[in-house]
Amino acid sequence: MKIVLTVVGKTTDKHFLASIQEYMQRIGHYVPFSIEVIPELKGTKNLSEKEQKEKEGELILKSFQPGDYIVLLDEHGNERRSMDFALWIQKKMAAGHKRLNFVVGGPYGFSQAVYAAALEKVSLSQMTLSHQMIRLLFVEQIYRALTILNGEPYHHE
What we know:
The chain has helices at 14-27, 49-63, 82-94, 112-117, 131-149; strands at 2-8, 33-38, 68-78, 99-104, 120-122. The chain has 157 residues and is an alpha/beta fold.
């Protein structure tokens, strides 16, 4: 199974980029992993929040492939401890899905169509975090989960 992180807009901060790349390399030792970037919309000043979410949603939906298990990173999703998240990943890997696709929406969240396509929602925190920071935190948690599943000493509990 491949793990995919789908995001709206590029990561521009060079420090975040370097750290994300480091974790991507580490994750690649365990499973195929990629980040798919949905381009930011142009000319959003004339769009309402709802219109922007719908246009981004159309692009997000087009990025999905048949067999994807879609999980939204959403503030209203389930929070898990790292150990529990690792076991959850293990179950998804054993279920035979082609891709486990985690999705980070745009600045206003997801359209109703994207919510409808999702099978689950996961929350990293009840706090509001920048979209660039979420990317780094999430790839670290994927790496942490994989080291837990492989009995490696990265995670201490």
